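2024-03-11 09:14:02 DEBUG pipeline.ingest accepted 1 chain
2024-03-11 09:14:02 DEBUG pipeline.ingest length=415
2024-03-11 09:14:03 DEBUG pipeline.predict start
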Amino acid sequence: MMWDPLTSPRSPDMGSKASKSEKIYEFKPFDFRLCADDDSTVGPFPKPRSGHRIVCDSSNLYSFGGYNPYISDSDEDLKDDPAWQTCKPLFQELWKFNFATCKWRKLPCHSSMPKELASNAVILDGGILLVYGGTGVPFGFKCSNSLYYCDLSRGTEMKPVTPVKSGSEPTSQYGQALVLNGHWLYTMGGTTGFVYNSDVHRFNLRTSEWEEVYICKGLSRHEPQGRYRHELAFDGQKVYVLGGGTATESYGFEEIPALDLATYSWETIVTKPDLNFNYPTARRCHGCVQLPPEGDAKKGSVIISGGYNGQMMFGDVWRLDLNDMQWQFMKCSLHQPVYFHSAAVTPAGKMFTFGGILNNGIRTNEVCAAWVRIPKLSEMCWEAILFYNPRVATQPRNKLVNMGFPKEFVDRLDV
């Protein structure tokens, strides 16, 4: 590729060494850093929030909903926002954060969004965002058992999925967790605000029918205790329940409930502690992402981060290998302790966290990220190009393709 000032390092002397004051790109895995550019205060961005949910693809982070009771009625950005005035202190919003530009954009689908906007369960299926359940305010007095979907390539409308019949759907509640297995969407647990359960239902995305999978009645000693704000992992056969709790309890990670989807039976899996740091402390309202298997491994791994146990909030990060159920304390931490945040991971293995509650109940709108596995060299090169030449992310796509940039990366730009 011919040298071009657009795609070449900032230094005018290509043969000279960088000065000490010049920033140098460094690939450093397992290091959580704030995602912000030099103009991070310019342009629209979401207000600090908790109780929202995020998902990631290779190009963008998407944030749905959220809650913040401490925003002033005179806030300059929201005082004329009809969605905020109708739903406050809940955010009837779907935001997109582009990784290349580090810029936010609010998608214009608020008019068709549900009113239950806190502690929903969300999942990304290809380019389709699925949103299930959730609560309005006061929490628990208005809950949902509705499923919505949004085509993120358009982001202009969020549509409800109408079940073909009623009677087998879960109770209206919030704090559930989802797993997608083919065309089956499984939901587990949640609370009405007063009652907690660990019941499992599934929804057929082809026929729009609900089915009961397992209703906990105390018939097996392996049935998990009722909970909300837990997380789920899935290895293709078993669904693992990670943490969660009630208003007064938080559940741990030494023993993990697992549901076998072939037999619909619960079992209790005893995990192995980290050799030096034992187990993660029991918690709820934590973040969780799942990584696919690498090499000869048959199963992937899970990473949990942050959370709360009723007394202490956490900023630690742990990995659970689903092959041998071994916990590993990650020698990194979130930017600061946080809970009621949300986490997601890109297909290449970069983990993002957004929002949540900090000390003294303060909400944040920080986006942080860390590589939690080593990506392809092309991913590092793309990061380095954007580091040295952020203007690349604002150029017309056809210009970049003609200059030799791989279309795979050019398609990630939000231009």
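2024-03-11 09:14:41 DEBUG pipeline.report The longest strand covers residues 196-204.
2024-03-11 09:14:41 DEBUG pipeline.predict end
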